[in-house]
């Protein structure tokens, strides 16, 4: 059997397996819950809740209802005491029977602080399995050459040890250091252009330079372009715009820039590169031409055999799609899967229309139905009162009970120590693949702009910023929105929204006034509109920050242990360190006149 035939058989087998479990998702989910509880029977967290009940003797249909009645919904605050004990060296099975050798750090971009999450061998295995399944679906539509290269902007953060000897780092750092990452490359015969020393050096600027340098050396071999988040790809090519001449010099001379000062990175990259004047001249010629075209279509120009760009492009990554499409030109954008629980079964769909089919074997799923308030306000003696909840919650349903068109918050029970854990992700069911739901990610819960009765979500803010940026593009001078965030300022009464913009290019102040006014008028939440009209919320403030401000925010997070590969710009923040950066870097302020 040839290599290609063997590869085709592997892909057919894994898709066939998923078809089977998706068709029988209700039964598979009950079996998955049983497996999780049997595997982790006796751990302290569960024992405190369900005692010594004999899981194996309980009927699967009954087990679901018993589990739901005995184990309450959980947030990170519920598991934090257990992860802290693990970090301090407690080897008792607290959350999982499988040894916790690593603890993953969340990025901290959502709530302003990082959290510990258990990471076990099962975590790496699941990540590998989801990768193979996703790759099989992509290969059906965009087949790649076996033995080709992957242009992969991947970054590890520095790992450290807790006083109990547990290794702490981001989930991506643990995965890139795992055997499963090496297995993935060996089984697919597709290798990243950069060696481990570049991935794990801990300095994202040096990593990015070396990624670009080696990606250019292997330019004819690259089959697709990828990174965990669309943001990382956009940032890498923004850096490329500034560094291409230096990269061409290093390729022509076989040298390495003085900006690379980590010994093992220098040695590993120098061992791969050699003088190549012909390649340098080709790249230089392309860049001179593309610079005049504002770098449109640069990816397929430099990597002519690339088939697509692959990354997480939904949710908070949506604002980067315009710039990513600009760089990618005619190359398809394929949206990657969040975490290790859902899969993109139709990679040909654009990111705006992508859905993710739930893999019913990886975790046990429950869903909280979410309903928007028909009215967030009422009048009592002339005053406006409001509830604090962003949604009205319905009764939990199982995976096989969800309905198309309904929004839900996901509740997960995993093999790695999370039990009825509220993810905080708002999703909408958009049909089914066989009998497993296809989900569309909407936004994070509780990431909202609110002052009194107003409630605007991350999605609402994205739509408003998108509308404002369209006005920005009307200007006679070439300008674009680089990034944005927001803050509900209640230090003075009445409180008001503040939106921070970083802009590339020159913009007339009259146009920025128009952007500010139009964004204020574009918030359609009824509580906001009423509050603006009654002046209980003040005019929206648009702050223009100097170039490089959002890189300072990135560096602030990386300085606190996050990795570039998991960074997401917070769309709404009350973090004092971030607000200090934003306010210090503000160079212009505009106030809306939308409501007179």
Automatic annotation (TrEMBL):
Residues 472-577 form the GH3 C-terminal domain. GO terms for cellular component: cytoplasm. InterPro entries: GH3, GH3_C, GH3_M. It holds the Pfam family GH3_C. The keyword Thylakoid does not apply. Signal peptide: none annotated. GO terms for molecular function: acid-amino acid ligase activity. Coiled coil: none annotated. Residues 357-444 form the GH3 middle domain. PANTHER family: GH3 DOMAIN-CONTAINING PROTEIN (PTHR31901), INDOLE-3-ACETIC ACID-AMIDO SYNTHETASE GH3.5 (PTHR31901:SF97). Belongs to the IAA-amido conjugating enzyme family. This is Indole-3-acetic acid-amido synthetase GH3.5. It comes from Solanum lycopersicum. The lineage of its organism: Eukaryota, Viridiplantae, Streptophyta, Embryophyta, Tracheophyta.
């Amino acid at each position: 059997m040839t290599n290609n035939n063997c590869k085709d058989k592997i892909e057919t087998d894994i898709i066939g397996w998923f078809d089977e479990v998706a068709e029988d998702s209700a039964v598979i989910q009950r079996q998955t819950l049983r497996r999780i509880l049997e595997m982790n029977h006796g751990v302290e967290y569960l024992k405190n809740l369900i005692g010594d009940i004999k899981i194996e003797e309980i009927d699967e249909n009954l087990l679901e209802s018993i589990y739901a009645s005995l184990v309450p919904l959980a947030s990170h605050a519920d598991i934090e005491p257990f992860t802290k004990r693990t970090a301090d060296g407690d080897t008792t099975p607290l959350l999982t029977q499988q040894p916790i050798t690593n603890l993953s750090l969340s990025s901290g971009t959502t709530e302003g602080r990082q959290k510990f999450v258990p990471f076990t061998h099962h975590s790496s295995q699941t990540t590998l399995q989801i990768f193979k399944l996703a790759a099989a679906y992509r290969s059906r539509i965009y087949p790649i050459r076996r033995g080709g290269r992957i242009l992969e902007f991947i970054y590890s953060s520095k790992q450290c040890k807790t006083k109990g000897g547990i290794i702490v780092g981001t989930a991506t750092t643990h995965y890139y250091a795992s055997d499963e990452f090496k297995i993935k490359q060996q089984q697919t015969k597709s290798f990243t252009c950069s060696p481990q020393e570049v991935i794990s050096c801990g300095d994202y600027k040096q990593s990015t330079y070396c990624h670009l340098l080696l990606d250019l050396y292997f330019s004819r071999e690259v089959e697709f372009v990828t990174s965990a988040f669309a943001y990382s790809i956009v940032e890498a090519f923004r850096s490329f715009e500034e560094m291409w001449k230096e990269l061409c010099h290093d390729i022509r001379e076989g040298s390495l820039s003085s900006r690379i000062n980590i010994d093992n990175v220098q040695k590993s990259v120098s061992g791969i590169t050699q003088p190549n004047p012909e390649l340098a001249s080709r790249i230089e010629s392309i860049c001179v031409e593309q610079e005049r075209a504002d770098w449109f279509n640069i990816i397929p120009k430099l990597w002519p055999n690339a088939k697509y760009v692959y990354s997480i492009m939904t949710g908070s990554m949506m604002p980067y799609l315009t710039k990513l499409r600009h760089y990618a030109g005619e190359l398809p954008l394929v949206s990657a899967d969040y975490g290790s629980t859902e899969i993109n079964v139709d990679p040909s769909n654009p990111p705006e229309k992508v859905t993710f089919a739930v893999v019913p074997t990886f975790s046990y799923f429950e869903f909280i139905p979410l309903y928007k308030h028909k009215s967030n306000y009422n009048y009592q003696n002339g005053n406006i009162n409001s509830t604090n909840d962003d949604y009205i919650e319905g009764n939990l349903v199982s995976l096989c009970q969800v309905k198309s068109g309904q929004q839900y918050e996901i509740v997960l029970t995993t093999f790695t120590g999370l039990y009825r854990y509220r993810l905080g992700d708002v999703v909408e069911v958009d049909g089914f693949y066989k009998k497993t739901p296809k989900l569309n990610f909407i936004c994070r819960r509780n990431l909202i702009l609110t002052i009194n009765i107003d409630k605007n979500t991350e999605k609402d803010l994205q739509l408003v910023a998108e509308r404002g940026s369209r006005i920005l593009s009307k200007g006679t001078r070439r300008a674009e929105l680089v990034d944005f965030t927001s803050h509900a300022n209640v230090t003075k009464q009445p409180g008001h929204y503040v939106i921070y913009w970083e802009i590339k290019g020159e913009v007339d102040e009259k146009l920025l006034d128009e952007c500010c006014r139009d964004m204020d008028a574009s918030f359609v939440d009824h509580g906001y509109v009423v509050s603006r009209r009654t002046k209980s919320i003040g005019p929206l403030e648009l702050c223009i920050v100097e170039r490089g401000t959002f890189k300072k925010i990135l560096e602030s997070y990386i300085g606190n242990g996050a990795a570039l590969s998991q960074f997401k710009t917070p769309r709404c923040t009350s973090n004092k360190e971030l607000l200090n950066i934003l306010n210090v870097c503000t160079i212009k302020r505009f106030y809306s006149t939308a409501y007179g």
